[in-house]
Amino acid sequence: MKKKQRVSIKDISKELGISITTISFIINKKAKNRISDEVIKKVEDYIEKVGYEPNTSAQTLRTGKTKTIVFMAEDISDPFFSAVAKEMEEIAYKNGYKIIYCSTENNKDRAAELISLFQNRQVDAFIITPPENFEKEIQELITQKNEVIMLFDRRYTSTEHNYVILDNFNGAKMAVNKLISSGCKNIAYVGLKSDFSCMSERLEGYKDAIKDHQSQPISLLLPFKDVKTKAGRIQFEKFINKHTAVDGILFATNGLAINGLKGLKELHKNIPDELAVITFDDRDLFELHTPSISVLSQPVPAMATELIKGTLELLRAKNDKNEIFQKILPGNLITRDSCKLTIYDKK
Fold first, then answer.
1. For residue range 79-89, what is the model confidence (pLDDT) as tens digits?
2. Of 38, 254, 287, 294, which sits most exposed with the smallest number of CB within 10 A?
3. Closest CA relative to residue 75, chosen from 302, 221, 228
């Protein structure tokens, strides 16, 4: 079977009797206020009819842009990161860009290898949830290689860079204050043993909220590798058995919460009668769980919008070293059955 010949802009120009420049403006969404609506519609209708597809390789050579943004998440299968990715994809597409997704698995070497791969493919920008101990590499990308870098979910304090993050400190305080208002007297924090800014800010928010409420913090910090494992659950169960007075828990991530809920079930702990629970990051299963689990939810649509908006602004001002984009967005506390302490309500 004879292969269908690719339609070029030159072919469209010849068929419609419209200049190549005009057609190029229309294809690249630059026709507004330059070309009449009638001509735009005529070209767009013909493009749809013949199934025209732009030659991306030629465009890249001509403009130096691939119209591609890489989103490097910690784990793209995590519902939080995948929800953000989906929202970003829609916004980017409307602005003429495509998103490539990948996971670092919190592995520094893997992240470096992926960045090198995408640099060779000349992507336009990176949105990165950096793994641990990756600050030096990020700084090099920004200052030495002049890449457009937007950090997401975590940031560094020692260097000036672009980021979109949650207000983790005040989010943790909000969650703890809800536990306090529900009647909790001994509130524990279960987080990650990590240098991530999001983790340290959540821990500090917890400590600040309980400083006038209980004599000392009660915290368990687990290694990243144990978050979803039986080993992590066993550590959590030992922690609960040691701190028998704990009647409220703030989990720093949804992964920690899921493993923790399994542990509480193994220990036959009744939620919310014996202890109340709130976790960062919502998931469908938290609403479906019995009892439903209260969450500090991240504003996914707003985050996705700011990430793409900021990245596009940085691309437009790529040679302006003073252009910095930083957003800290508030979380939303969703109160469900897990922090209604009936034991106190009855008193």
1. 999 999 999 99
2. 38
3. 228
Q: How many residues does the chain have?
A: 347
Cα–Cα dist 238/147, whole Å: 46
Distance CA 221, CA 251 (A): 10
Q: Report the predicted TM-score, pTM, of the whole model to 2 decimal places.
A: 0.78
Instruction: State the burial class of residue 115 (Cβ atoms within 10 Å of its Cβ: 0-12, 13-18, 19+).
Output: buried
pLDDT tens for residues 231-255? Answer: 999 999 999 999 999 999 999 999 9
* C-alpha torsion sign, points 268, 272, 205, 105: positive
Candidates 3.20.20.80, 3.40.50.2300, 2.30.110.20, 3.40.718.10; CATH matching 63-164+300-329: 3.40.50.2300
> What fold, for 166-296?
Rossmann fold (3.40.50)
Contact present, 55 and 20 (Cβ < 8 Å): no
Domain 63-164+300-329 matches domain 166-296 at the CATH topology level: yes
Domain map of the chain by residue range?
Answer: 8-50, 63-164+300-329, 166-296
Q: Do 22 and 39 meet the contact criterion of CB atoms below 8 Å apart? A: yes
Bridge partners, 164 (sequence order)? 152, 327
